[in-house]
Amino acid sequence: LAVGTGSGFIDIWDMRFQLCIQGIQHPTGARVISLLRHQDQPSSLISSFQGNNEVAIWNIDKPTIRQKVFWPSPATPLSLTQSLNHYIAAMYLWKNDGSTSLLCAGTDMR
């Protein structure tokens, strides 16, 4: 079970033993808005965060490094000081003809 928090943590729980087995923290502590499991990569989580429309792919085996970051904001890429209020509110991952696509809907209405 993966849970996102308002203080920028993604906690991975083993429900058999009711233990938190892994913790991931966003570099700025940005609030986690949405979480999605990657269909083709079981150890990957896709997450969206408050501010800058940021979407990140994390490898839960190497939680300190984001595998990939999507940053459609006009703010400086991966800026820790600049932040816009827009965020991705919902995500949907699907496969079509062998390729995987990520559909995002955000508060900027684009």
Automatic annotation (TrEMBL):
One Gene Ontology CC term in the entry: late endosome
Instruction: List GO BP terms, alphabetically.
Output: late endosome to vacuole transport; macroautophagy; protein targeting to vacuole
Q: Do you know which SUPFAM superfamilies this protein is assigned to?
A: WD40 repeat-like
The molecular function GO annotations come to: protein serine/threonine kinase activity
InterPro entries, from UniProt? Vps15-like, WD40_repeat_dom_sf
**Protein name (database record):** Uncharacterized protein
